[in-house]
Amino acid sequence: MGHAIFLLYPQMIYKTWLLVSLLILGNVLLLCFTIVTLEKRKLWRLPKKLGYYHVAYPQKYTFIIDQPEKCAEHKPFMVVIVPVAPGNFEARDAIRKTWGSEELVRDKAVLVLFLLGSRSGTDETLQNQLQKENQRYQDLLQSNFRDSYRNLTIKTMVMMEWLSTKCPQASYAVKVDADVLLNIKNLINMLVNLKTLQRNYITGLILSSNSVLRDPSSKFYLPHDVYPRSRYPPYPVGMCYIFSMDLPEKIVRVSLHIRPIFIEDAYLGMCLKRLGIIPKKPPNMHQFVVRPPPQYNRCLYSRLIAILTYNSTQLTSYWTDIHSSSTPC
Ligand SMILES: *[C@@H]1O[C@H](CO)[C@@H](O)[C@H](O)[C@H]1NC(C)=O
Ligand SMILES: *[C@@H]1O[C@H](CO)[C@@H](O)[C@H](O)[C@H]1NC(C)=O
Questions:
Q1: Whose CA is nearest to atom 10 of ligand 1?
Q2: Is residue 230 helix, strand or coil?
Q3: DSSP string covering 199-228
Q4: Kind of pairing, strands 202-207 and 235-244?
Q5: What is the pLDDT of residues 74-125, one digit of tens each?
Q6: DSSP single-letter state for residue 121
Q7: Which end of the chain, N or C, is surrounded by fewer C-beta atoms within 10 Å?
Q8: Using CA atoms, how far apart are residues 258 and 247, in angstroms rounded to an integer?
């Protein structure tokens, strides 16, 4: 027996060395692959490499107008952020006079803030007006990236940054466009009826497998090499979405690994997918409406959470009408 082991010995050494060499080779290959991947990621960050379908994020954007103490003071249950163009005073006014004025619903504090980018060049008149507007209402957040339609993803991401650092007191956050009629009471009811405080929660009008548009004339066209899959991961339509406050920090963190495209809500879906979070359908999908019916109907409108309006005049008149009677139907 001892003899046989003695004879096998050289062969065993040979096998061991073969195994070790293979392992080393494998590790070297893995290392090379990692370095190449990391280099690629680094390149993504370089602004000069930015394609037409991508946006300049992450960058060290800062807030020119900020409300750093607002959440600590108000301790909101729900903070509502309205992305809006700097020059759109009309939309902000309409919201302040309508749904933005509802600060306390079912004992829950609601905080509404407007989020702006900056104008290119030195538009001092506009900037002075914004400073005055903010002195009066103290509800503006302005970041120093350039405000434009193609930069909406940056707006959403600086919103997530702001929420995660300046508003940890809130339980939920809402992103809502400036042309949306929001029914704060119905929204608070929806959240309160969830019974327990949700985590990893995001809801709204969920598109579960929206097609990537490949027609170059389409507004949301995205070429194959920018996004190779034919469908986006599930995401809530950008008009209005609601999320639990543990999400902003996670979304900011994961966004560092996913090159941002200009389609804000689809990009949010890409981040959520990477986090393994599936957007939830709201208790009642019909409460979110992107295409308003041809005729206004008080009974219908009073039951909704969010509906797109045509302009600020319409938003104001519908909100006033809904609230003109305690029995809208
Ligand atoms: C988006 O914002 C960045 C940073 O301010 C700016 O460099 C870029 O030109 C903007 N893009 C558009 C299309 O406005
Ligand atoms: C707002 O929209 C309504 C309905 O489409 C229209 O009749 C009205 O003229 C618009 N008002 C303004 C100021 O644009």
A1: 146
A2: coil
A3: SS-EEEEEESSPBPB--TTSTTB--TTT--
A4: antiparallel
A5: 999 999 999 999 999 999 999 999 999 999 999 999 999 999 999 976 678 9
A6: S
A7: N
A8: 16
Nearest residue by C-alpha to atom 2 in ligand 1: 146
Mean pLDDT across the chain: 91
314 lines ligand 2 (CB under 6 A): yes
Judged by its nearest atom, the ligand closest to the C-alpha of residue 312 is 2
Bridge-based pairing state of the strands 235-244 and 172-176: antiparallel
pLDDT for res 289: 98
Residue nearest to atom 9 of ligand 1 (CA): 146
Please give the structure tokens belonging to residue 124.
Answer: 């001092």
94 within 8 A of 315, measured Cβ to Cβ: yes
For 54, which DSSP code? Answer: B
Identity (one letter) of the amino acid at 149? Answer: Y
Q: DSSP for 156-206?
A: HHHHHHHHHHH-TT-SEEEEE-TTEEE-HHHHHHHHHTT-SPPSS-EEEEE
* Cβ atoms of 104 and 110 closer than 8 Å: yes
Ligand 2 within 6 A of CB of 311: yes
DSSP state of 260: P
- The CA angle 180-156-53, to the nearest 5 degrees, is 105
Residue 190 pLDDT more than 80?
yes
Which phi and psi angles does 27 have, rounded to 5°? -65, -40
From 122, 134, 108, 276, select the one nearest 193 (Cα to Cα): 108
Structure tokens at 204: 């709204």
Residue 190's alpha-carbon distances to 61, 112, 186, 325, in angstroms, are 34, 18, 6, 22
Amino acid at residue number 62:
T
Strands 104-105 and 108-118: antiparallel
CA dist 98 → 93, 94, 134, 317, 321 (Å): 9, 6, 18, 9, 11
For residues 33 and 198, the model is more confident at 198
